[in-house]
Amino acid sequence: MIVTYSRNVFVPLTRNCRNRCAYCCFRTDELNLMKPEEVEKLLRTARNAKEALFTFGEKPDLRDDFKKELRKLGYKNFLDYIVDMNFLAIKNGLLPHTNAGVLSKEELKKLKPFNASMGLMLEQAVELECHAESPGKRPELRINTIRCAGKLQIPFTTGILIGIGEKTYDREYSIEVILEIHKNYGHIQEVIIQNFMPKKGTKMENWKPVSEEEMVDVVKFARKILPKDVAIQVPPNLVKDLEIFLRAGANDVGGISDVTPDYINPEAPWPSIDLIVSKLKDFVFMERLPIYPKFVKLKWYSEIVGGLIEKYSNADGYARSL
Known about the structure:
Layout: E1 2-11, H1 36-45, E2 51-55, H2 64-72, H3 78-91, E3 95-99, H4 105-111, E4 117-119, H5 139-151, E5 156-162, H6 168-185, E6 188-195, H7 212-225, E7 231-233, H8 242-248, E8 252-256, H9 273-279, E9 284-287, H10 293-298, H11 303-312
Helix pairs in contact: 5-6, 6-7
């Protein structure tokens, strides 16, 4: 069985966010924006990476002070800034994957040429109390973004977050929603099954985490109904026994960085890919790009990122050994 992974660098452009999720420790009220020189310095440390993972707060430029900070840098809006930082990553030999939250079709269209792939966690396809102060977590908005990405043929990552107040049938329904979108557009490359880990200082710090058995059941259900060419990813830093999940049907361990932490789950350091491989000798581990082999072969990418994709991919669409 082939298990894939990506070598990446995590670029958190801003911790400012319009959403106030009850479980989040990433968001801050203090003005926060990485400057271009800070981004480039970080990118240059990632010598072993091929992916630049841009993940940050949603629509931070709704704040007046954030807009002023952008104007100081010569930008009218945050989307233009994202594009330039994506291009900066490309110039430094990295393939961008951007998760910018809820976006319109026009916003996705603007980012598409500068990204090998994009993503947005559905989290859950039902409304939950933990999202009461999070307008960007309304299921219909996130579903629309995922659909629009399909219409634009953007290789896309999505997934669900479990243990945030949903029921078992909500989890299954959420995966079914993702399946129906994929049936229409064929652009979902991976579905992440992520367990919520309580964070100190948040409203849900005393929340009981989901059990490993519950997680395994969700992975089995996802593998049962999703097409074989849609990968199921389990974050290796958030589960105790990765092998159980691989035997249940997961076949990707996501992006792993040797220079940046998981800023969303800072208490859970990444295991090294060498350590994972040494422990799980029954599996064949293959490095992939942020764009999956299927979409490399279909050439679902622009000329702007095409040079790097063709340089980094082998004949099967996986990452080439350089």
